[in-house]
Structures are given as structure tokens and as C-alpha cells.
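Example record for the data management plan.
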Amino acid sequence: MRLLRLFVLYTALSLGANMSSAQEADFSALLTAKQGEFKKLIVHDTPKPLPDIAIFDVTGKEIRFSDFAGKSLLINLWAEWCAPCRKEMPYLSQLQADKGSDAFEVITLATIRFSQPRIDQFFEEIGVDNLAKYNDPKGKFAFKIGIAALPVSLLIDKNGNEVARFIGDAEWSSDTAYSLIDTFLQAQE
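Corresponding structural encoding:
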């Protein structure tokens, strides 16, 4: 009888594990989608869970990345003084306009000591008004995920895991970028 119970338990656990792994996204296609300037994209062997650190929205309300569960994200970490950040932001804006949906969103995260009025002024100066603006005023999130230079863009799967990281600015509204984002989203279907 004990042997039968162990067999049933083992079978149930095996089936559960197989079903769970079948539901996990396979992001290996991103490796072949890395073309042009996106050859620098760092695709993680295993997706990395984001730390549960508070960031803030435009009203000062505390937000956590778990609040975005079920949605894929491109998180762009930037700073006002960063010239490549300024250059890249219109491309991110166009990516959001063309690919943003209930399933995918581009969000920006200002890091270290930026007040909301300064963030708003930055976006007004560059003529971008369609991106979600968040703030990491003490740089806790950036520090926890090991950001050493800006800009950095993170591809976050719908389960809240960092799948890939791009260091530096990129033309996110190019055909190459759109193909990369399409591949990223298709891997999660």
C-alpha cells in the first residue's frame, strides 16, 4: 500500500513539474533575434525575479513591479543628465505608440534624486508625453539590480522576471527593435 501511495505521489509530482515547465516561456529565440545594435542584448540563461523594491509614480504613490503582473515590460532606467538617455527617449516613445498594449508597456524609471517636476520638465523638453514615468529617488532599485551605467533597458516577462538587459542607448523604434520585441512577446504566448 505504501508503495502504491509513493507511486501516485511521484506520478502527480512529475505531471505537475512537466506541466509547469511546459508553461514557462522559452526566450532562446531572443538569441537569434539579436541583430544590428541589439547584438549587445544580454539574454539571461534563467529569468531573474525583480526585487520587491518600491518605486514611485507621478503622484508619489508607492508602486511595486508586482503591480504589473501579467504584463510584459520594457523598463528604461535613465537620468536627466544623461545625453544618451535624452537621445533614446523619443525612440522609446515611438515603441510605446506602436507596440504598447494591454500585454506590453514601455515604462521609464528615473534614478537617484529626481523630483517629479524635474522629470516632467525633462519629458516636456524632449516632446514625449506617452510614456509612464516612475521614480527611484534613492536609487535602491537600480543598486539592487546592479546598474552601473545609464541608460539601461530591461525586458521583463509577464511573470515579473528580467529576461534580458540592454546597456546603452538604442533605436527602439527600428524594424530590428520591433522584431526583437515581437520575438519577446511571442515567447510568452
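Summary line stored alongside the record: Residues 2-23 have pLDDT under 50 and may be disordered.
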